[in-house]
Specification:
Layout (H helix, E strand, L loop, with lengths): L4 E4 L2 E4 H9 L4 H21 L6 H5 L1 E7 L2 E7 L5 H6 L4 E3 L7 E5 L2 E5 L2 E3 L9 H10 L2
Antiparallel strand pairs: 1-2, 3-4, 5-8, 6-7
Helix pairs in contact: 2-5
Length: 139
């Protein structure tokens, strides 16, 4: 395969080397993104997220994506309640889907109820705040 070289003024650009440096996750730019940005966000996000079973913390992972003119990283969770934990919820009513009664533990005791009035949850911006902090540190 011949090497593609573009000439811009007095500057010659080696296209494969340019793409490797800027657009490949294993290139210099991709390693910088992973080491200096992605790792910071992951560590801070996992320390901020609430832990009941640890499933949400374990599910926070990065996905490094290469596109034709660059690359980016998506950090998040695939769990169905991750967004509710991040953004919070309003007060709402919980009713059983398949059974006649709800069964849960409260203060170490088993409770049965036909309906529960959940007070809602406060938002915990465990992803967006670490992203802003990481970008602020790059200044």
């Amino acid at each position: 395969m011949p090497i593609q070289v573009e000439k811009i003024g007095n500057f010659k650009k080696n296209q494969p080397a340019f793409n490797n440096f800027f657009n490949e996750p294993a290139g210099e730019t991709g390693r910088f993104i992973h080491k200096r940005i992605t790792k910071k966000i992951l560590i801070r996000s996992k320390s901020m997220v609430g832990v009941k079973t640890g499933a949400l913390r374990k599910s926070i992972n990065p996905t490094h994506i290469k596109i034709s003119d660059g690359q980016f990283v998506i950090i998040g969770s695939g769990l169905n309640y991750a967004y509710m934990h991040h953004e919070g919820t309003r007060p709402h009513i919980i009713v059983p889907n398949q059974a006649h009664m709800l069964r849960f533990t409260s203060h170490g005791r088993i409770v049965h109820a036909r309906i529960v009035r959940h007070p809602g949850t406060r938002p915990n911006h465990y992803l967006s705040l670490p992203m802003l902090e990481a970008l602020w540190d790059l200044r």
